[in-house]
Amino acid sequence: MKPPLRIYRYLPPPSQRAPCALTIGNFDGVHLGHQAILSRVRREAQARGLTPAVMTFEPHPREYFAALNQRPELAPTRIFGLRDKLSALARAGIERVVVERFNARLAGMSANAFIEDLLVNGLQTRWLLVGEDFRYGARRSGDIDLLREAGLRHGFDVHTLSDVTDRQGHRISSSEVRTALAVGDLARAQDLLGHRFHISGHVIHGQKLGRTLGYPTMNLRVAPRCAARSGIYVVRVLGLGDAPRPAVASLGVRPTVEDHGRVLLESHLLDGPADAYGKLVRIEFLHKLRDEEKFPDLPSLTAAIAEDARNARAYFAVHGL
What we know:
By secondary structure, the chain is an alpha/beta fold. The chain has 2 domains: 146 residues, 3-Layer(aba) Sandwich (Rossmann fold), CATH 3.40.50.620; 124 residues, Elongation Factor Tu (Ef-tu), domain 3, CATH 2.40.30. It has 10 helices and 12 strands. A 6-stranded parallel sheet has the order 1-4-3-2-5-6. A 6-stranded antiparallel sheet has the order 7-12-9-10-11-8, covered by helices on one side. Helix 1 links the parallel strand 2 and strand 3. Helix 5 packs across helix 6 and helix 7 runs antiparallel to helix 8. It is elongated. The protein starts with 5 loop residues before the first strand and ends with a helix.
């Protein structure tokens, strides 16, 4: 039985600190490249009697600097919300995650303070794995050489991992996953992720418009700047019983009926309604049907939903769940 994942919004208190094998990164999507890193951390931790640990950041550092410089268009989209990222890290065998808030204090921290305050004193790092181009500290002043010098002084080993590539030799990266999702290429995204793209969350109450139209939906809030392209998708729903449920879903801002721009994921179960409010569900994206559209009236919207449901049923008739 795997130990439970311990999550810290700040450095662990002194009484809960333990020597660890650590890796550092944003880990958006926890794609196959990330999984290779996490697998090595887990193996080294087991071999050395250490806790496998991850330090990640919220918000993404690029998101922080985009806001600071009033350039929101430079902020990266998000493959995963925090819940899905943490779940994936737990499945990869990580036992401790420190979600370090990326703010002015962290952005202005010197490279030496980053090493001594966070890695040495805060996390008791004994073994560290980072990418070959890892930079840290104010103005990205810290590099691998400085880490290795500090490791000799403080007693931790520093290792680097080169890029992980796909079958065609292309680097696997979060940027590549975002590009695939932005154009609706779910197959390419799955090849890079090693799993289906999905969104998890608690089902919330909506406006009940789908019920009025004859197509009741389960509504999930979506993290800001979701990487997936808005549109209509064939999906399967997990968390409403032992077996997955077939569904058709709309990811977007509901342009026909709303104008405030909030992104929602609305899923209509094809095999009948469920008592889902408040439940934690996982929506796995299987196939993109079409882009999101704004219709002139509700009858046109209803006809489009009916066609989407027919196309989703046809997909499941061929491919199953």
